[in-house]
Amino acid sequence: MTSDQAALFSPRIDLAIRVAAVGHALAVRKGTALPYIAHPVSVARLLERDGWSEDVVLAGYLHDVLEDLEPDDQRVRARFKSEFAALSASPEDGRGFCDAVAGFIAASFGPEVARLVESVTEERVDASGRPRPWIERKEEVIEHLKTAEANLAALKAADVAHNVRSILIDLDTWGTRVLGRFNAAPDRTLWYYDSVAKEVARRLEGHPTGLPALLAAGVEELSRRIG
User: Is 206 a member of any domain?
Assistant: First the structure.
């Protein structure tokens, strides 16, 4: 391998792709047959092409691993334990297994990547295990973004920009019935995306990044398409 080839290869990114692939192995994008791994890969590519550090790109690959983890599913635990030696002796209880995966991410990728992943991980259930309302979780995200530093704002911008672009592609293919896949009415979904776009634009003002403009353009087109 030449020095130029070596510079193009990152063991950390290779490992992040493996972790994301294991974490999302059984998942598909909502309402489609498309493997879910397409989303974090697209988010990471957006961040890389926009010039963000490897830590931010790694967080792009990993950003949904903890949020979407199903720790009580024996198949999930088995996949992680068989693929990663560091998790082979991880706890069998759900909370303990989640903590083990979070610890594995921190140990493998460093504190900044772990912080970014944790920062964009929504708490989907409350302390008693009941699902939290969609609006409550999204209001929390927007409030958090109001004080987010650039790395976190960029990660969220890439995440939402790809989600919006995916909806637009599905609208072209299937029409407005795709909006029925989501957890909120179209106007609430649009409110959330628009709020994120405005907050990341404020947080990234002055930074040499195209992500806020990309997100704003997607939200504007989505607003036009769904009225």
Answer: yes
